[in-house]
Amino acid sequence: MTDAYSSAGSQEPAEDDGRPVIRDKRRIDPQTGKVRDSGAAEGDSAVSQQNPEPGPEQPVDPTGQQAPGSTPQPEAPAGAPGSGPAQGETDVQNEGGADERAAELQDQLLREKAAFHNYRELMKRERPKDRDAAIGSVVEALLPVMDDIHLAREHGDLAEGTPFAKIADKLESTLTRFGVQSIGAKGEAFDPTLHEALMHVQADLPEGSEGTTVVQVMQPGYKIGDRVVRAARVSVADPA
């Protein structure tokens, strides 16, 4: 045994990288105690020197922190896997924000739709009034002309077939198409909302008259729908 261990090994210069190569020429394996082949012993020793076993692992603190004396590990850069919130959490947050924005837009759309509906209904109610107001302003401008036509007809100046009579008929028919109605006729019951009594006289009334009655129309009145442009100016009488 002494002779076997006496030739422990020899150091030879390295042929490749300049490091020393130790060749173990012992025939007996110091670990197993068996006789080994000389070529295998030299190869194992050379491999063990060229590829040394890795050193001991760095100690780790059970709390998760690095133990004293160990090499500090670099921190993961921002955006690297394992840093910041998980991708799934980010997707959930983005989806929640999109749902809230969609709900806000839908609510705003419903409000605008309701406002437009109210405006349309208001225009439907106000349009006839605006139309009547426009026609009424035209009739007010034509009142002097309509009064002259009435006086000419009362004095017999509008004989049937004359050019002036045709013009008067066309004007009155045009106003009628736009909803203009004449107010005031002899024999009508006096209505203070439609008539303006300029004179109160004694006169024979038609049979069946029970109240104040129109006996003469001085200036006819006009109305458009329920709006009175001008009340008829009349002379009235009471039954005897």
TrEMBL record:
Residues 72-89 have a biased composition (Low complexity). The keyword Cytoplasm applies. GO terms for molecular function: adenyl-nucleotide exchange factor activity; protein homodimerization activity; protein-folding chaperone binding; unfolded protein binding. GO terms for cellular component: cytoplasm. It holds the Pfam family GrpE. GO terms for biological process: protein folding. It is found in: Cytoplasm. Coiled coil: none annotated. Keywords: Chaperone, Cytoplasm, Stress response. Its main location: cytoplasm. InterPro entries: GrpE (IPR000740), GrpE_CC (IPR013805), GrpE_head (IPR009012). Residues 1-102 are annotated as: Disordered. CDD domains: GrpE. Residues 16-39 have a biased composition (Basic and acidic residues). Gene3D superfamilies: 3.90.20.20, Head domain of nucleotide exchange factor GrpE. Residues 1-10 have a biased composition (Polar residues). Participates actively in the response to hyperosmotic and heat shock by preventing the aggregation of stress-denatured proteins, in association with DnaK and GrpE. It is the nucleotide exchange factor for DnaK and may function as a thermosensor. Unfolded proteins bind initially to DnaJ; upon interaction with the DnaJ-bound protein, DnaK hydrolyzes its bound ATP, resulting in the formation of a stable complex. GrpE releases ADP from DnaK; ATP binding to DnaK triggers the release of the substrate protein, thus completing the reaction cycle. Belongs to the GrpE family. PANTHER family: GRPE PROTEIN (PTHR21237), GRPE PROTEIN HOMOLOG, MITOCHONDRIAL (PTHR21237:SF23). Homodimer. This is Protein GrpE. The gene is grpE.
